[in-house]
Amino acid sequence: MTVTFDTPLAGLVALAGVAPLAVALHRARAGKRLRAGLALSDPPLRTRVVRPLALACAFGLLGLAAAQPTIREQHARVTRTDAQLLLVLDTSRSMLATSTSHGTPRYRRAAAFAQRLHRALPELAVGLGSLSNRVLPYLFPTVDDRTFSAVLDRAYGIERPPPAPDLEHWVTSFDALGQATIGRFFSPGVSKRLMVVLSDAETRPFDVRGVLRELRSEGVTPVVVRFWRHNERIFRPGGAPESYRATQADELHTLRADGWRAYPETSFDAVVHSLRRTLGSGPVATTGYLPRETLLAPMVALAALAPFLLVLAPAGQLPRRRRAPKARAALLER
């Protein structure tokens, strides 16, 4: 663990406290001379120094906050060696559909879901793939969080890459999911292969049981998450809807009836629970280190308020000074 300062020169702002501190010390000396002339005893030391010290602490803390101290640590990254996750994102044009012309389209909701899922399963190496009428890799399974986020943000999009030139079927085809068993989508030796398909499930007819059987035979457990609402349309840039209409809502029921794990997009927790149930326990290894940063500037700046409040407090709220006997006698004579 190390403490660093992102803007050390900004700490010179603490010097701004020199002027008010000098004024406070000057007033303290003037008060001492006045009490000596009136034959009054000095108040307790703690009463005399409380405000100067409070000023010094306040500006010192402000200078420390301006320097932006940060605690930096590194934690071991522990990864499952027997399991990997592949997120397959639908790139067909129907993923542009949304409820209103200013709504969030399906493909953006799918990307946000993929990011959440990646964060919920930090022990897994995660890969990315695209789905149209074929499955192509964006990213092979990795534990590099920054690489995953960069590829998801910059590579994933509608018809990126475009589907194969099949003039009859330019739509999503779940038949293509079987390609995950023959391509190098997972590392060799990985026994638990999870594949989460993020799609509107508007697929052309396919052999539901046959594809599932093919995937399971290679140790691949498929999970389908459907991004779909009955009133969604595809809107042109000007706001006018296209002729596209959403399909019927029974796709998830059909998949479940034939043994697939299928969920609506609102079932994030259920998806995570399903994946963890499949994962169970297994061997792990340290594959790197994760940097963690804790910003101290906000806490230090907040701490500076305490001495400032002490400086601004009315004199009556500070510890009371006891009058010297001579001072009380002088007052009685008056």
What does this structure look like?
- The protein has 334 residues and is of the alpha/beta class.
- Helix content is 36%, strand content 21%.
- It has 10 helices and 9 strands.
- The strands form 2 sheets. A 6-stranded mixed β-sheet has the order 5-4-3-6-7-8.
- Helix 3 links the parallel strand 3 and strand 4.
- Helix 1 packs antiparallel against helix 2 and helix 2 packs antiparallel against helix 9.
- The longest helix is centred in the N-terminal third of the chain and has 22 residues.
- The C terminus is likely disordered.
Q: Tell me, what's the shape?
A: elongated
What is the CATH superfamily classification of the largest domain?
von Willebrand factor, type A domain
Helix content: 25-40%
Which ranges are low-confidence, i.e. pLDDT below 50, for 5 or more consecutive residues? Answer: 318-324, 327-334
How far apart, in Å, are the first and last alpha carbons? 67 Å
What strand order characterises the main sheet?
Answer: 5-4-3-6-7-8
Q: Mind telling me the C-alpha Rg?
A: 34 Å
Quickly count the helices.
10
Write the H/E string, N to C.
EHHEEHEEHEHEHEHEHHH
Beta-strand share of residues: 15-25%
